[in-house]
Each structure stands twice: as C-alpha cells, then as structure tokens.
Design goal:
Blueprint (H helix, E strand, L loop, with lengths): L22 H7 L7 E5 L6 H12 L3 E5 L7 H13 L7 H7 L7 H18 L5 E6 L7 H12 L5 E7 L7 H6 L3 E5 H4 L3 H11 L6 H11 L3 H11 L5 H7 L4 H14 L3 H10 L5 E2 H8 L4 H10 L4 E3 L6 E4 L1 H14 L4 H14 L4 H9 L3 H17 L3 H10 L2 H5 L2 H14 L5 H12 L7 H21 L3 H14 L5 H17 L3 H17 L3 H17 L3 H13 L13 H13 L3 H18 L2 H17 L3 H15 L6 H17 L3 H8 L18 H13 L7 H18 L2 H17 L3 H15 L6 H4 L3 H12 L4 H12 L3 H4 L8 H10 L5 H8 L3 H15 L4 H10 L4
Parallel strand pairs: 1-4, 1-5, 2-3, 3-4
Antiparallel strand pairs: 6-8, 7-8
C-alpha cells in the first residue's frame, strides 16, 4: 500500500506583502553557506518561517523545502518527503532510493542514506552547480528518535554544496555541543528574532498606520518582549479600538494570558461566519476547500480561505496554487481550545466528516486518526477490516494492532474478522495471552445462523484455522497444529495465496517439530511456491528460510546457503536494498558463515540481520536472530557481547511463550557461554530445570535439547566434578545417536558423535574415540563443517592429530587442524580449556587488591595451592603477570 504524497508540503510559502524588512537577519543568513547546518530555534510566533521566506525570495536561492507535520515521525515517510523535496530542484536525484522508500517494507534507512549521499556527492563533483539549501520547517514536530538519528547521520556526511536549515520551536535532541565545537553550525535564536524597538515602530506606525506615540510603542514593545505574533495579534485587536493608549495600558500579563486575551479580541471582531469557519476547520492539520466544504457542509470554502489569507488571520498557504493551507500551529491550538467551549457537541461530527472525505481520497492513516479523535469506534473498526489484509501482507502488524487495541473490547468481540486480526497481531508481537479467546469469539460469530454468506464463512473459517495452527505450534500442540493447518487448506480459496502460505508455514513447522525433516522441507518449499503465485515475496522468503533450516538439519549446508540467498533476494528491493524481513535469511547466513569459520562475514551478516529483525518486530524471529548473534559472538570469544545479547532475548521471553526451537537455541548458547567462562555451577543449575533429565523423552520440537544436557554432563566429567557420571552420560549419548539416525538429523548426529569421542577419550579409550570421531568427520566433510569441531578445544585438536597420523580423511583433517592454528585465545576457551570453578573464584579475587596470602586466607586454602591455581590461570590466558591476567579476563568477559 503506497501512501499518497502530499505535494503541498514541499512548497515554500510565498512571502507576504507589507513585511517589516529585516536586513540584518538576511545578512546573517547569508553566512549559512559557510556552515553545514543553520539552526533557527525559537518559540512559536517569532517569525522563523517569515524570515526564511524573505531571505530566500530576496536572494533568489535554490531551495528544497519541507513543511514538517506530526505524520513525518515515520522515518520512511520523513525521508520520502526529503527526497521528494530534493527532486523539486534536482529531478534525477535519488530515484532508486525514493522507490525503495515507497515499498511496503523499506530497507534500513542508513543504507539508503549512504546511497543518497554518494549520489548527491557524485553529482556535485561532476557539475558546476551552485550551493543549495534543504530547509526543514517546524522540525519541533519530530519526536521519533529514528528520524533524529538518521538526520544526524546525514548531517555528519553532508554532501558538498548542500546546506541544511532547521527551523524549530525548540532545540532538537542532537549533539549540539559537538557541532558548535566543530564550527559547523550557525544558530539563530529568539534573541536574534525579537523585533527591535525600531522594528516595532515600523510595524505599528508604518505598516499598520496607528500613529502611536513613542511612549505607547515602547510600552507595547516591552509588554510583548518583541514577540512578533503577540504584536500582530495586538494590532488586530487595536483595529477596532477608539482609545489605543488605554488599550495598550490594559494590555498586560504573561504571554499565556496575553494570548488568551488577544484570541478573544480577534475572534470577537470577526463575523459569525468567519468565527465558525475558523473554529471548526481548526481540527484539520491541513485543509483544502473541498475538505472544508465537506466538513462544514457548505460550498464557499474557497472564497472563505481567500478572505482569511487576505485578512492575515494566521493562514499559511502550502502551495503556489493556493489549494492547500494550514493555520499557524499556535493559532490552531488556541482555536481548538475555543472550539471545545463554543461547539463541543460538533467536534465529533467534524472529525467523522473529515475521516470520510480523507478515506474517499485514498488516505489511510488520516481517516483512522480522525475517526479515533471522534471516538467513532465503529468507523475505526470498519477501516481496520478494510485495510487489514493489505497491512498484514506488508508485515505492518504493529499499525493494525495499534488500531485494534484502541477499540473497546466488547466491540472487537462482536466482529469475527476483528477477533481474527487481533489474535494474529498479538501472536506476531508476542502478546499471546487471550489469542485463543479471540479465535473462539470469531467461531461463535461464524456459527451464528444469521451468518449467511457461505464464501465468507469458508474464508473466515480458514483464517481462524490458520491463526490457531500457529498458536498450537508455539504451545506444543502438534496434532492440533497439523489438523488446523490442513483444515485451512481445505477451506481457504485456492487464490488466497497469502493465507494458504501462512497456513503452510504452520504445517511445515509441525512436521519439523515431530522430527520429520524431509517432509517439513517439502512443505516449506511448497509454501514458498504458493506465496509466489500471488506475488507475496515476503511470505515466500520466510518459508524458504525454514526450508533452509531443514537442509542444515540434514547437513546439506551448501544447499541451505543457496536457499537462503534465494530467500534474501525475495526480501530485497531496487538496488539490493533490504526490507526488514531480510533480517531472517541474513542471520541464518551468518550461522552458516560461522560454521565455515568465516567469522568476519558471520558477524556482518548477523549484525545486519538483527537490526532488520528488530524493525520487523516478530518476536520469534527476533529471538532466533539474537540466538544466532550470540552463537557468532561466542565463536569470536566476545563473552560480554554474548551475555548482552542473551539478556535482550530474555527480556522478550519474560511475558511471551516463544517457539521451542528458539528457546533451545538460546539455552545452547547460554550453556556454552557458562562452560567457556568456568561457570559449570550455572550449567548444573540449568540441567536441574523441570522436564529435562537423562531418562526423559527427547523433543525434536526443542531441537533435541538433550544434546545440551549431554554437553553439561560431559563437562562434569572433564572437570572431574563430584556430579560426574560417565555411564549416565554415555547412555544418554547412545540414545541421542539412535534418535538422530531415526529421523535423519545428521547435523545433530555430528554433534553427538563429537561428544561421544571426547567423553571416550577421558576414559583412555582412544580406539573408540577415534572410530567415533571418524564417523563424525565422514558426515561433516561434504558440508565443510569447521566450527563444530574447532570450538571443542584442546582435546579435539589432539584427537584430530591422531586421526591425521592414521592418514584418515587427511585433507579435511589437515584443514581442521590449520583452523585450530588460526584460533586466538579468545576463541579457544571452549569446552575443554575453560577456567575451572575454583580458578574462577581465584580470578575474581585477583582483580581485587588482596595479596596471595590474603586470597588464600579468604578461600581457606594454602598460599601454595592458590599460587598453583594462578599458574594455571596464567597458562590458559597466555599471560605472565597478574595485571595482564586481569586485563585479559576483562577482555574475554570472564570477570
């Protein structure tokens, strides 16, 4: 859905006649070209826009102009208008970026800005064009941090010959001190804009022709403090006063009271017809004659707008054709306050009429905003249903959710479609409590005998089943998930490719959770094909990602890479710009790069992918992205980063029932982190969690998380923990091996075989260990596995050396051994070479000022024992001094 572009925002309001000349400010503004930024910051009514109009007109400057409104807090919309403004003076600029911004899910804004900055810079270098201005008027209406951040980035890399001017009622939340220090910013503030005494004289006596005495001019100038709008409103009131001196003497008080008084005076001296027009149209952020006619049910709004403009009643034209206008923001606010006092019963009606007219003209957000302001929830409900499918297909779940959640709960319960959409948007955002109740309400309405439309009945029934299948999948109700997904396929029209694909994703997920990896892969591929028939590349992209996960499970890493690149291509726009749903294939490509030990590429993939997943907002995909990022950070030895990422994931899971796979992947990273940093005690507490024990039933839905349990049991054996139980560990691994064989989960089989080999080596059964490791290598070699072996540390390296000596799979083994040589210490502290629990205790005391004897006394150990632990710590950290050990431990996130 492409939102209409309101071109009137791009027109520089023409200068009004009979302005007070302000040559000193024009001279000041001419210095703007010596700076990258000019900030004009002052309260409402200080003539910021008027000053810019005078300067630009007098100096005949090349200007791209935008009149900011509150709707520009959407970062994509903001930059769409910036580009549209630039194209008014440079038509060929940024066409690719403009197209990307107009897509349903724009790529990350920073990548688009880089492309735009480069293009403008290239054009500036290749031509002899003069300097030009980008003016953002009323920038104080921007409150969204993403918009601020993107504009700061743009300013930091501003193209040559371009200058930015910001006009705002208050300072933007920018690093102004840095800009001042760099001397890249010029500032014009309220003190610069206030009318001087001579300008007050010029305005009151030369322009308004009041003929006031010097005493009266000084008094009025002092009372208004040079505030231009205050003087203008005073002048309007004085037009009908016989005793001007008496009026000026009575004109006292703070700005707020003066403004209230002047507003009453201005309105009181207008005709009833003008008053009514002013008050009732004040609810419109922007107005045009047809909209005003519709709102007021009249036919002369064009004439009225012309009269208001001629009377200087704070009406600002927004285009050269005098079609669109707005009121001065402060004047509009005051008019609205008066409206609530004079016509309180008509406010809702005005909003309703505005909503209808804007809907008829193809606007989307504005009709809903007016309907909400009118508290016309039936209209909001109708608009939600009208736009829902389009919003869902563009993954704009948050917009639809915001609208639905503002509706009264009883009203939502009376609409089957609203119930379905509410359930689905809550599932997406993670607010899943009550989702099933929404679906039950929809079914109740569906079964009502008055529901006669059979085709809609089937469509609604299929949609309910689709959403329920996804809830069942998360809630581990696999038979129900399969039943509902298949029901959806029976009921939905064969042309509803989007919903059919969505139902198919749940079906594939259920087969995946049952361990049927081949069938799951087939279903996901079919989902992608179905979605593409309807042109829904976003849905197809996610389905292909799920198919790639199944291919990885079967150890088909090269095929998975191909599938993921196809998924990524479906989530890209013009110029390889990436939409938010490109985040998922990126993080999965990052995991593959990590396995192949290309950690730089892996980190780039996951960092870009996580950012996009955060924008997308799907809680399950975002959690999986965090799991992928944690995995890569762990491989890089970035333990502090791993902890931070896991904490982000944990924040999501506090109030959300996540996909079991995501939970299992996070736990795997968490346990590996604990073992790598010597916190076996944390891992021991984890395996005591309910439902996870060595004799428990395996769950493919939890990605065979008993492998993680086996890893902890193996660590207990390696570290000679009192909890270690060799027989129990080997029995669990044997059961896991059988489970991976049964379902063809080769990726997991490799992990199990590796753990078996490592555990057998501790019993000095090297023949058994090498035979087992040989099986793992045979399965892993076609996929080019590296990280799975290298992350296991010293004992794995020794076993591979023994394999190499036997000349078994020599090229592959040699490659793996070479990979070990490239591992820095921060990446070698894996399962076999962590600091022990006791060494971690010593390390935590080493960072204090305690001496070795004091540490020994605190730990109830002999000094020699402590020195032995310190020696081991130095060896594992590859340092020779206490301070170096402390520094390295902090670098690795150990302390």
């Amino acid at each position: 859905m492409l939102y209409p572009l309101l071109k009137t925002k791009l027109y520089l309001p023409p200068p009004r006649p009979n302005l007070v000349p302000r040559s000193h400010l024009v001279e000041r503004l001419n210095q703007a070209f010596a700076h990258e930024l000019t900030l004009i910051s002052a309260s409402a009514g200080f003539g910021k826009t008027t000053m810019l109009q005078e300067w630009i007109s007098e100096c005949d400057l090349t200007v791209a102009w935008i009149s900011i409104d509150r709707g520009d807090n959407d970062v994509a919309r903001f930059w769409t208008y910036v580009l549209a403004a630039i194209q008014t003076i440079k038509p060929e600029t940024g066409k690719t970026v403009f197209s990307a911004l107009q897509t349903p899910q724009p790529p990350p804004i920073r990548s688009l800005l880089i492309e735009l900055i480069n293009e403008i810079s290239d054009r500036a270098e290749s031509t002899t064009s003069q300097s030009w201005l980008l003016v953002l008027d009323d920038y104080h209406l921007i409150t969204e941090s993403m918009v601020h951040d993107s504009l700061i980035f743009f300013l930091d890399h501003l193209p040559p010959k371009m200058h930015l001017i910001i006009s705002s009622r208050f300072d933007p939340p920018w690093p102004l001190a840095r800009l001042r220090a760099r001397r890249t910013m010029m500032e014009i503030r309220a003190e610069d804009l206030r009318f001087s005494h001579q300008e007050v004289v010029t305005f009151l006596n030369a322009i308004m022709k009041f003929g006031l005495s010097t005493e009266d001019v000084v008094a009025l100038g002092r009372q208004t403090e040079g505030w231009i709008v205050g003087l203008q409103m005073a002048a309007l009131s004085m037009l009908n006063q016989s005793d001007l001196s008496g009026f000026i003497r009575a004109f006292t008080g703070t700005n707020r009271f003066i403004l209230d008084y002047l507003l009453e005076e201005v309105l009181d001296h207008q005709s009833t017809d003008v008053q009514e027009f002013l008050l009732k149209t004040s609810l419109l952020d922007q107005m045009t004659a047809p909209l005003c006619d519709s709102v007021l049910e009249r036919s002369n709004s064009r004439i009225m707008l012309s009269r208001l403009e001629q009377a200087n009643l704070f009406l600002v034209p927004l285009d050269d054709q005098r079609e669109w206008y707005r009121y001065h923001h402060l004047f509009s606010e005051l008019l609205r306050n008066q409206l609530t006092l004079i016509y309180p019963d008509e406010i809702s009606v005005i909003h309703q009429r505005a909503s209808q007219w804007l809907e008829d003209q193809g606007f989307v957000d504005e009709p809903v905003a007016h309907a909400l302001a009118a508290k016309d929830y039936w209209r909001v409900a109708r608009l939600c249903v009208k736009y829902a499918q389009s919003l869902l297909q563009q993954s704009k779940y948050s917009v639809l959710s915001k609208w639905i959640e503002t509706l009264p709960a009883d009203m939502v319960r009376q609409s089957a479609w609203l119930c379905v959409y509410q359930s689905w948007t809550r599932h997406w955002s993670g607010q899943r409590e009550g989702g099933e109740e929404c679906l039950e309400n929809a079914e109740r309405i569906l079964m009502d005998s008055t529901f006669q439309d059979q085709s809609e009945k089937k469509l609604l029934g299929g949609s309910i089943a689709t959403v329920r299948a996804h809830y069942a999948l998360v809630n581990e109700q696999l038979p129900l998930a399969i039943d509902q997904a298949e029901k959806a396929w029976r009921l939905l029209p064969k042309t509803d490719f989007y919903t059919l694909g969505t139902a198919g994703v749940a079906l594939g997920g259920a087969y995946w959770a049952q361990g049927d990896v081949a069938k799951a892969e087939q279903v996901f591929v079919e989902c992608a094909s179905t979605a593409l028939k309807g042109g829904f590349s976003f849905r197809a992209s996610s389905a292909l990602c799920y198919a790639a996960v199944q291919q990885v499970t079967q150890a088909k890493l090269a095929l998975a890479e191909t599938t993921l690149h196809r998924a990524l291509s479906l989530a890209q726009g013009p110029g390889d710009q990436k939409y938010p749903n490109a985040g998922y294939p990126l993080v999965k490509l990052g995991e593959l790069a990590c396995e192949w030990n290309d950690l730089v590429q892996a980190r780039n993939f996951v960092e870009d992918g996580v950012k996009l997943c955060e924008i997308l907002g799907h809680v399950d995909l975002l959690t999986e992205a965090y799991a992928a990022q944690a995995k890569v950070q762990l491989a890089c030895g970035d333990y502090a980063g791993t902890r931070a990422t896991l904490q982000l994931a944990d924040q999501i899971s506090i109030n959300t029932k996540l996909d079991p796979w995501a939970t299992a992947w996070l736990d795997d990273c968490r346990v590996r982190l604990w073992l790598s940093t010597g916190h076996l005690n944390h891992a021991n507490r984890w395996i005591a969690a309910p439902g996870l024990n060595v004799v428990g039933e395996f769950s493919y839905h939890y990605d065979l998380n008993h492998i993680t349990l086996a890893r902890v049991l193996a660590a207990q054996i390696f570290q000679k923990s009192v909890d270690a139980n060799l027989d129990q560990c080997l029995e669990l691994l044997a059961r896991l091996l059988a489970a991976t064989n049964e379902k063809g989960w080769k990726h997991h089989k490799i992990q199990v075989l590796i753990l078996q080999a490592l555990v057998l080596s501790t019993t000095h059964d090297y023949d058994g260990a090498l035979q087992t490791l040989h099986q793992a290598l045979t399965i892993a070699e076609p996929g080019g596995y590296v990280r799975t072996f290298v992350s296991e540390g010293k004992i794995m390296k020794e076993l591979l050396q023994k394999i190499a000596e036997q000349k078994k799979i020599s090229d592959y083994v040699t490659f793996l051994l070479d990979s070990f040589l490239k591992e820095p210490i921060s990446q070698r502290l894996g399962l076999i070479e962590p600091l022990s629990t006791r060494e971690m205790e010593v390390m935590n005391l080493l960072i204090t000022s305690l001496s070795v004897p004091e540490i020994a006394d605190k730990m109830f150990l002999s000094p020699n024992t402590v020195r032995s632990h310190i020696k081991n710590i130095y060896g594992k950290l590859e340092v020779n001094r206490r301070m170096d050990a402390i520094e390295k431990a902090k670098e690795l996130g150990l302390v």
